[in-house]
Design brief:
Blueprint lengths: L11 H10 L21 H7 L6 E2 L3 E2 L15 H15 L25 E2 L4 H4 L4 E6 L2 E2 L3 H12 L3 E6 L8 H14 L4 E3 L43 E5 L2 E7 L3 H5 L9 H19 L2
Parallel strand pairs: 1-3, 4-6, 6-9
Antiparallel strand pairs: 2-5, 7-8, 8-9
Length: 289
């Protein structure tokens, strides 16, 4: 689908910024930089005033739950979103709406109005206002016919969906398995493809081509037989392509939990930085294609 046919607005500021910094892979993370934007009272003003928003997709989870103190449902850990958005604003110098009252692992669940936005695939008119949406969870889930239609329409009109499995401790990759089934059902059995390390999404701002999608694993917890302390279960980055554009990126690696760990308490500081860098790469790819 050519850019002139896209019905979803990509903020021109970020498109220009992305072109300007595409070769700046060596840029350091400007950690804990001040936010460049303030809270505004409603969603329409957000759309008018900010260059980038990262709303969460609300959906119903079911079936076997993970084994954390959760369950970690669709609005879990807004501190991860807050950290990523702060780091994005510092690196790109764009107007990003901050998430207040959240940082790192707290709170466990976002309060009403705390996230950049909440969208569903049932409400196509609302979700197509946003070029990028984020979806995470710990459990199995299914979409009904209306949600499947909305998902397909959203990406065909130019939208980008980041899906990241929130694997907890020794829990299983339930969200990832449900997402694979959903995407194959909606876009075809061969639509979900492994994204090679050579793809630009691993190189556009930060060069992550050696490892591809970072995988979050505990580094500060002792190993116990029979209790494999692990987070992300690394199946590699997989995507649904519309023509040559990645429209959906599916991760089993728990990069969102990586965004929560700015002090390196669980995964180590280096893994936090890699997770943030990957998040910035994904956003800049999505917003400029």
């Amino acid at each position: 689908m050519s850019p002139q046919n896209l019905q979803i607005n990509r903020r021109q500021f970020l498109k220009d910024a992305g072109a300007a910094i595409a070769g700046a892979a060596a840029a350091a993370l400007a950690l804990h930089a001040p936010c460049l934007a303030a809270n505004v009272p409603n969603a329409q003003e957000d759309l008018d005033l900010y260059d980038f928003l990262m709303p969460r997709v609300k959906f119903t989870e079911q079936g076997e739950r993970g084994k954390g103190r959760g369950p970690d449902v669709w609005n879990v850990r807004p501190g991860g979103d807050a950290n990523l958005l702060r780091e994005l604003a510092a690196v790109i110098r764009c107007r990003v709406k901050p998430i207040t009252g959240a940082g790192d692992w707290e709170p466990q669940y976002a309060a009403a109005g705390q996230l950049n936005g909440v969208v569903t695939f049932e409400d196509l008119d609302e979700i197509v206002k946003y070029p990028f949406v984020f979806m995470t969870g710990e459990n199995f889930y299914e979409f009904d016919e209306q949600q499947r239609y909305g998902l397909k329409q959203y990406v065909q009109r130019g939208g980008f969906v980041l899906m990241d499995d929130c694997v907890v401790a020794s829990g299983g990759d339930f969200f990832y398995k449900s997402s694979c089934s959903l995407l194959q059902e909606v876009f075809g059995p061969s639509a979900l493809k492994l994204i090679p390390h050579e793809h630009e999404i691993f190189h556009n701002v930060y060069d992550l081509g050696d490892t591809g999608l970072p995988a979050m694993q505990y580094v500060n917890r002792p190993f116990r037989p029979g209790l494999p302390y692990m987070h992300g279960q690394n199946h590699g980055a997989r995507g649904v392509f519309i023509d040559d554009r990645i429209a959906v990126l599916l991760s089993s690696n728990d990069i969102h939990c990586g965004w929560c760990d700015s002090r390196g308490r669980e995964f180590g500081r280096a893994n936090y930085e890699k997770a943030i860098q990957m998040g910035i790469n994904i956003i800049m790819y999505a917003i400029s294609h």
